[in-house]
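Structure tokens please, single chain.
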Amino acid sequence: MARVDDYINAKKIAAEELSREPFGEIAERSGYKLIDNSKLKIPFLNRVYMISWPGFEFEDESSEKKDVPLQEQVLILHYIAAKGEKKISGRWISFREIPGAAFYYSAFVKRAIDPLKKTFGKEAGLFVKAAKKLNGKAIDAGNAGFEFNLFPNVSLQLILWEGDDEFLPEANILFYDSIGDIFSPEDVAWLSGMLVYRLMALAK
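Here you go.
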């Protein structure tokens, strides 16, 4: 499991790389709104963050004004730094289909799939309520399925099959096939877990 020092170092590396680019190009590439030529407005998981340039410091613009978790800061910086194609083909893939993802599959299951099943596996209705609070778009899959847009051109589909006395619950998470051009497999595992844990918090 990554330590706080790892996140601090990852943020420092990403911020240093981004500081060498014109901020306008970063905004155009990432699809976020540029504010006063010095800030980016970033909606993420029902919160709104402002990122300042050139230091790439984060400020929570939501009503609660919480500290922005380091893991979220790193993922957001990795997204805006990504120079891969951010086009949507409309084709969905599983985590295993992401290039280089096999090594991180167990971490993905531990961080995202298992908590999703444990929390909502016998209460699909609770999953539906939490997903709606997070502006999920219902899809026709499983006993309950929702699509969540986390970044411009980055969406995840969470699908749940409710368990009963005879069958154990099942769950799956799907991604656009371009996800590997934007995030590393490790980042995708973390992103999936962030979404699931935010849903778990909303279900309380």
